[in-house]
Amino acid sequence: MAWFYLLVAGILEVVWAYAMKKSAGFTILTPSIVTIVAMIGSFALLAIAMRSLPLGTAYTIWTGIGAVGAFVLGIAFLGEAVTPLRIIAAILIISGIIAMKLGSGH
């Protein structure tokens, strides 16, 4: 279950990052509330996952899911640039996530 909690925590990290962007610096109520609720959920699930997963593995995968997810949402919904270097960077992050998972022994 730890891996499932970690995956959901990572997805919630993407949610709060996107909602924070949409909150315009916490000046719009609904996305501000979504940001705070998603942050609390993300941190809580990360903490639960860390009960049985190593710190380095859990934190790296959590931030990686958040980084790549935010990258994809930024392109898909915010019109952010798709450049070869940004795509290579995302591929490297995904490679790191896979390597961290495979090397965790869990």
TrEMBL record:
A biological process term (GO) from this entry: xenobiotic detoxification by transmembrane export across the plasma membrane
Topology in membrane: Multi-pass membrane protein
**Does Translocase appear among the keywords?**
no
SUPFAM superfamilies in the cross-refs:
Multidrug resistance efflux transporter EmrE
Q: Which residues form a coiled coil?
A: none
Query: Entry's Pfam families?
Result: Multi_Drug_Res (PF00893)
A GO cellular component annotation in the UniProt record: plasma membrane
Listed GO MF terms: transmembrane transporter activity
Q: What is its main location?
A: membrane
Similarity-based family = Belongs to the drug/metabolite transporter (DMT) superfamily. Small multidrug resistance (SMR) (TC 2.A.7.1) family. Gdx/SugE subfamily.
**Name of this chain's protein:** Guanidinium exporter
Give the source lineage, highest ranks first. Bacteria, Pseudomonadati, Pseudomonadota, Alphaproteobacteria, Rhodobacterales
